[in-house]
């Protein structure tokens, strides 16, 4: 087994030279995770806000379910999506299994509860402050919903970031529904798992470094946006 | 302003009870157009609650609130309210006003002129593009007045709009209220500040422990109030009578 310094040196060399294989994996990872975050945001934000604003039978159960599903096991989601998309499954006809689309679907399902649950909390807190004023303006609950989402936009960045963090670090679900096929469905996390098992620690470490840098960059950008919003009293 | 008049506003035997505790009790009152009505009384008299009932934010548990000639149940296009601590939306001063115009489905091409008019009335023209939340408390209250008035409501409810302001800001807010009234909007305002009531009132509703003790023209109220409680309040005494004393 190579020593730590040797592995580190090789890893940094791979990153510095930006190996084409590495680039392909990084690009696919970003494509899958960002697409999943985008889809989950489209569903999770209004879902969370609706649960915060509307009163209906089973609301408490839904809140408990959303909170519990924040910790949904990725392998279980992967397995369910696998069964749905496999040839014998209800959506088998679309032939999506072992494709990036299947990975996006699995990750979307994983992060919807995270975004929805965090959004519900943020919007519910805001509603306590805004309800009387918005009702006085003549805003219905359905009209108040987009208003509150807009008012909470900078706080909700955190919810979306939490979803991105989960998606980019997730390995179980994408491994099951994507199959970790080279040049087709291999993403950073599945590649790291594979390279470690093969003993190519340098490539695994290079991918790990890129994953950490990407995560830091996204979080830093979001932090700067929030800081700018605070500075201009918009958050 | 909408041409159909929704005034007078009538409260017929209105009560509001929470958990068996009566907070507003058997209020009968008719509020005519034009005059500035000040709802006066000590803390806990039910003044703010009465405004919320009239504005439609809460429903009475007994009795009825009747707007004259209201075309339907929805009177939100005819009336507006300014709270003691108004919520400023996280956007610019002008955008705060534009939001209300959008809610009232006023076409966008008309927004600029209406926003300018409202900001001029409140003396906030220079602050149009500043985030609303950086304004001082007095400026925020003036923005709340401009925002409420921009749709030209027939009635404007004001819930102690200068309770947290210094004398200078209070004066500015009172000037804005005067201007709104001069534009034909009926003012219904709560306060526990006798000086402010003297300055602004045409008519006084005096409340104590959820009951309306008297409804009199301001001159009569401040010169020769009918009830012992009002006389005591004007003398600056602490009102602590029991429910039984008030009822008798």
Q: What is the CATH fold-level name of the domain at 9-87 and 154-247 in chain B?
A: Rossmann fold
Q: Describe the sheet with the most strands of chain B.
A: 6 strands, mixed
> What is the mean predicted local confidence, pLDDT of chain B?
90
Count of helical stretches of chain A: 10
Q: Note the total helix count of chain B.
A: 9
Instruction: Tell me the CATH topology of chain A.
Output: MetI-like fold
Would you identify the regions of chain B where 5 or more consecutive residues have pLDDT less than 50? none
Query: Which value, in Å, is the CA radius of gyration of chain B?
Result: 18 Å
What percentage of the residues of chain A does DSSP assign to strands (E)? under 5%
Q: What is the number of independent domains of chain A?
A: 1
Oligomer: heterodimer
CATH C-level category of the domain at 9-87 and 154-247 in chain B: Alpha Beta
CATH superfamily of the domain at 9-87 and 154-247 in chain B: P-loop containing nucleotide triphosphate hydrolases
**How many strands, which pairing sense, and closed or not: the largest β-sheet of chain A?**
none
C-alpha end-to-end distance of chain B = 44 Å
Descriptive notes:
The complex is a heterodimer of chains A (235) and B (248). Chain A has one domain (20-231): MetI-like (MetI-like fold), CATH 1.10.3720.10. The model of chain A has no long low-confidence stretch (mean pLDDT 92). Chain A has 10 helices and no strands. Chain A has helices at residues 4-17, 20-53, 59-69, 74-85, 100-137, 141-151, 153-169, 172-178, 188-198, 201-231. The longest helix of chain A is centred in the middle third of the chain and has 38 residues, at 100-137. With 248 residues, chain B is of the alpha/beta class. Chain B has a domain at 9-87 and 154-247: Rossmann fold (3-Layer(aba) Sandwich). Chain B is 35% helix and 24% strand. Chain B has helices spanning 47-55, 93-103, 111-122, 137-149, 167-182, 194-200, 218-223, 228-234, 243-247, and strands at 9-18, 21-31, 36-40, 62-67, 79-82, 155-159, 186-191, 203-208, 211-217. A 6-stranded mixed beta sheet of chain B has the order 5-6-7-3-8-9, sandwiched between helices. In chain B, strands 2-1-4 form a 3-stranded antiparallel beta sheet, covered by helices on one side. In chain B, helix 2 (93-103) packs across helix 3, helix 3 crosses helix 4 and helix 4 (137-149) runs parallel beside helix 5. Chain B is globular, with a radius of gyration of 18 Å. The termini of chain B are far apart. The model of chain B has no long low-confidence stretch (mean pLDDT 90). The chains are: A mainly alpha (235), B alpha/beta (248). Chains A and B meet through helix 5 and helix 6 of A and helix 2 of B.
């Amino acid at each position: 087994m190579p020593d730590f310094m040797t592995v580190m040196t090789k890893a940094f060399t791979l990153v510095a030279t930006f190996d084409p294989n590495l680039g392909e994996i990084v690009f696919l990872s970003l494509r899958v995770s960002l697409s999943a975050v985008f889809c989950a945001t489209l569903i999770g934000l209004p879902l969370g806000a609706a649960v915060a604003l509307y009163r209906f039978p089973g609301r408490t159960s839904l809140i408990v379910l959303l909170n519990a599903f924040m910790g949904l096991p990725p392998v279980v989601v992967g397995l369910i999506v696998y069964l749905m998309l496999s040839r014998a499954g209800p959506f088998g006809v679309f032939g999506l299994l072992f494709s990036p689309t299947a990975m996006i679907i699995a990750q979307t399902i994983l992060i919807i509860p995270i975004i929805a649950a965090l959004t519900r909390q943020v919007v519910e807190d805001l509603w306590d402050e805004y309800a009387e004023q918005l009702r006085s303006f003549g805003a219905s609950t359905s009209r108040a919903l987009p208003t509150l989402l807009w008012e909470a936009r900078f706080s909700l960045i955190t919810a979306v970031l939490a979803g991105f963090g989960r998606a980019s670090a997730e390995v179980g679900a994408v491994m099951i529904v994507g199959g970790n096929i080279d040049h087709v469905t291999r993403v950073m996390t599945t590649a790291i798992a594979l390279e470690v098992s093969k003993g190519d620690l340098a490539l695994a470490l290079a991918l790990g470094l890129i994953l950490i840098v990407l995560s830091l960059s996204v979080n830093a950008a979001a932090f700067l946006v929030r800081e700018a919003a605070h500075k201009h009293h918009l958050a | 302003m909408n041409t159909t008049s929704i005034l007078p506003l009538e409260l017929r035997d209105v009560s509001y009870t929470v958990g068996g505790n009566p907070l507003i009790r058997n209020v009968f009152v008719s509020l005519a157009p034009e005059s500035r009505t000040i709802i006066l009384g000590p803390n806990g008299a039910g003044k703010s609650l009465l405004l919320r009932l009239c504005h439609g934010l809460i429903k009475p548990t007994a009795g009825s609130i009747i707007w004259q000639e209201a075309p339907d149940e929805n009177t939100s296009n005819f009336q507006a309210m300014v709270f003691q601590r108004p919520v400023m939306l996280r956007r610019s001063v002008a955008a705060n006003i534009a939001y209300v115009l959008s809610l009232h489905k006023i076409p966008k091409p008309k927004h600029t002129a209406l926003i300018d008019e409202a900001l001029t009335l409140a003396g906030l023209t220079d602050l149009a593009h500043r985030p609303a939340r950086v304004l001082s408390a007095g400026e925020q209250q003036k923005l709340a007045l401009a925002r409420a008035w921009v749709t030209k409501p027939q009635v404007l409810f004001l819930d102690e709009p200068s309770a947290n302001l210094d004398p200078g800001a209070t004066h500015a807010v009172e000037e804005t209220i005067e201007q709104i009234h001069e534009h034909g909007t009926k003012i219904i305002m709560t306060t526990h500040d006798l000086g402010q009531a003297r300055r602004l009132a045409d008519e006084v509703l005096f409340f104590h422990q959820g009951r309306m003790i008297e409804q009199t023209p301001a001159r009569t109220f401040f010169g020769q109030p009918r009830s012992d409680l009002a006389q005591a309040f004007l003398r600056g005494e602490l009102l602590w009578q029991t429910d039984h004393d008030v009822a008798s």
